[in-house]
Amino acid sequence: MSCDRAAVSWPDWPIQSVELAVMALTLRGLAADRPLGLRVLTGDDLLDRPIGWVHPTELTDPQAFLEGGELLLTTGLALDEETSRGYVRRLVDAGVAGLGFGVGLSHDEVPRALVETAAEVGLPVLEVPRETPFIAITRAVSRAVAADEYATTVRIGKAQQELTRTAVGKGGPAGVLRKLAKLIDGWVLLFDHASAEAAPASAHAHAGSVREEAKHLRSGTRAFALDGEEVVLQTLHTRARRILAVGTPEPLDTAGRHVVNAAVSLLSLALEQDLTLTHAWWDLRKGAADLLAAGQYELAFGLITTVWGDPPEPPWAMVALVGAPAQRHRVGDALDGDSSLFFAEWGSAMLVVGRSGGDVLDRALAAAATVPPMYAGLADPVRLEDFEVGAEQADLAARAAEADGKPLVTFAEHSARGLLSLIDPVVARIYAENVLAPLRAHDETGRGDLVGSLRCWLEHHGHWDIAAARLGVHRHTLRNRIRKAEELLGRDLDSPGVRAELWVALQA
Predict the structure, then answer these.
(1) What is the DSSP letter of 388?
(2) How many CA atoms lie within 13 A of 395 on its CB side?
(3) Which one of 276, 308, 375, 471 has the lowest number of neighbouring Cβ atoms within 10 Å?
(4) Structural domains present in the chain
(5) Is 506 exposed, middle or buried (0-12, 13-18, 19+ CB in 10 A)?
(6) Three-class SS string for 160-199?
(7) pLDDT tens across 322-350, in order?
(8) CA 113, CA 147: separation in Å to the nearest integer?
(9) Whole-model pTM above 0.85?
């Protein structure tokens, strides 16, 4: 590995100079050590291979004693022109980095067959002169390996310090992600089922592919290739399932893996602390809203003023945003810091309160637009003493928007619907489906339109001739249909109360 490559890989790392000075020793670096007097016979283009260790042996088949990556040293005591070819191929199969052949003892020169075969199969061969003892080569490699391990230890320690300072400082989890991306010279994604944070921001482009791969990971670590890069997934030790994805052009080395593990531990701790603190803040906001609903205005205003600043002056515009818990929390994050608004969870909605006549609705909708789909309901104006009523009105309007698939419904629009405006749209729909289910099941058989006939009959106050004419059927046919509906529903359609309930169900 060249110095230029090291500088590119770690551009902003404060211990860059340490890594430049003590990289893993390569065959090229060893051959350049002039006191050793080594001569390269084959594999000039393969000399950038790192040397994992040195192993002297005179065995003709040392494969059982090798792990791969070694520089093998031999004097060729048991080798000749015939046996050299098979010997070289066995070394290649064992994955050695190269072969150092000592001359001047068993052989005056390296066997020609060995050199030819090594050139053919891609095995670097270094000629070791008689005056260079193998122990000198072993010492040179040993010093380089020790220095490299020390540099790795220093690099890990420095990186852990950088990550820790970031985690406990103002950077928080987002800062840890940015620092980690720089330390590994790659990109990172931290995601859960609903959202993802990326460093750098361009890493969001990988979110879809990473999420798909994460479906195969229950816990622990998983590695896979993505667009020519290695991506490592690591689950965090948090109550909510979160996964850290790390992408690098080359597989992580030992130091890189330690750095990622340190980041996982810090992120797990920071996120759990953030989660606990976040829950406490949400509970505090909800408590202030409950005080307002209970008429404890002095206590509520004192709490809001102390923690978040002066509350907006009533009368208020109140916006309810309906969505999943994660969506509501992200809306809260978007609104946090705006002292002219107060927001809190209200049931399963996010309630946003601001001065009537201001731009409360626009700001609430802008925050909701960052996490679609969400549905909004507006109650405006609302007096201080009507806080609970206004909150319920905004919530009902938001649920009507959700039921209708509209981004916004005002309570004024919702209340214009009459009796149904007083019923939760979801509850009304479920009620209607249950009540009318026997009639719909009958109609699906093609034996008559009981639902349509009942609707028309009720619209015309039970007048047989007018309803039958509107439906285009004989009045006796209509009587039979209504009788069948009465039988399936198990209700007396002569009862005004039953007719009213069925009419509400048909409208819902």
Answers:
(1) H
(2) 18
(3) 276
(4) 3-145 (3.40.1390.20), 169-272 (3.30.450.40), 312-415 (3.30.70.270), 425-507 (1.10.10.2840)
(5) middle
(6) HHHHHHHHHCCCHHHHHHHHHHHHCCCEEEEECCCCEEEE
(7) 988 888 888 887 887 777 899 999 988 99
(8) 37
(9) no
